[in-house]
Amino acid sequence: MHYFDYAATTPLREEAASVFVSVSQQHFGNTTSLHDAGGAAQNILAYSRNNLSKMLGVRPEGLYFTSGGTESNSLALLSLAQSAKKKRSTYHSFSGRTSFPSFSSSLS
Fold it and tell me: Rounded CA gap, 81 and 73, in Å?
């Protein structure tokens, strides 16, 4: 698993910001919608997922885009728990007072 986060302070390169603004303005459809705007957005998402998965050396279907740390932590913990359940193994997780709140709340 790869986790890319700077504690919500990741600097954004100018090139990335430019592409983000352009794509957001031109392809704003919901990727799960049936209309043309949704289909165009879904195509861009699939293209991006395939390219990024090749760069990272992972399978595209195992690459998830999340809205931030809380969603990422919840997804990671849920995935670990489901994997342990499938393997019928014991899964233990620990959290301390200094843990990120979303991590601690996902464990409860």
Answer: 12
- Tokens found for residue 39: 């289909």
Find where tokens 């601690």 sit. 104
Q: Is the pTM value of this prediction over 0.85?
A: no
Location of structure tokens 């986060």: 5
Query: What string of DSSP letters covers 4-35?
Result: --SSS-----HHHHHHHHHHHHH--S-TT-SS
Tell me how far apart the alpha carbons of residues 40 and 3 are, in angstroms, rounded to a whole number: 28
pLDDT tens per residue, range 40-49: 999 999 999 9
Q: Where are the alpha helices (DSSP H) in 27-100?
A: 36-56, 69-86
